[in-house]
Amino acid sequence: MKCPSCGASLPEDSLTCEYCGSRTTPPSQQHDQDIFRRVKQSPLYADRLSAQRIEKLPKPGIFPLIFIGVFFTLFCGGALFMSIMVIGVGGMFSLSEQSFPFALFPFCMGLVPLGMCAFGVFMAVTMFKRFKSMSSGKVEAVPAIIVGKRTQVSGGSGDSSASTAYFATVEFEDGERKEFMIYDGSLYGRISEDDAGILFSREQFAVDFDRVRI
């Protein structure tokens, strides 16, 4: 490796020239910088934030909203019904003065379904916010290199069906690496490690990727 300032020969892993003291860039970083430079010079990069390109970004279907509605209705509705029934039993016991200590037990038990209902509301709100961020969140389009991808399978025990989550790790121009969740399985199949291009993301989700030939 040559020093860019004085031309002296240096070890490949050297960060500073021992002759003139100037900083050097390892060949691997020089290669990555060249890749990012070519990505930023491509027509795809110049068109990345156009209205036509943003309109083509994949959007989640209506199924998540339907799932949220059904989940909220069944889970929260069932928990609220159980709470009313249990508290109602406590109200019947309270009519008798002799059963006063025992009447408190159904009231206390009625708090458990109420807690489940509150948890259901929290989960529904969280899922709705995630859906909103996937469909209408701010779009970031930056040069990136795919450095890794993985899947995570959950469920599948007993009568429950398994679900698969997709993730991709990318490296940015400044050397920072970050893992994004991919909600579109087809995107996971289209990208490979060492692919360079423009990453489209909404918050923690990778939405799309335009590969640039280097």
TrEMBL record:
Keywords: Membrane, Transmembrane, Transmembrane helix. The chain crosses the membrane at residues 62-90, 102-128. Pfam families: DUF2500, Zn_Ribbon_1. Residues 2-22 form the Zinc-ribbon domain. InterPro entries: DUF2500, Zinc_ribbon_dom. The keyword Iron-sulfur does not apply. This is Zinc-ribbon domain-containing protein. The lineage of its organism: Bacteria, Pseudomonadati, Planctomycetota, Planctomycetia, Pirellulales.
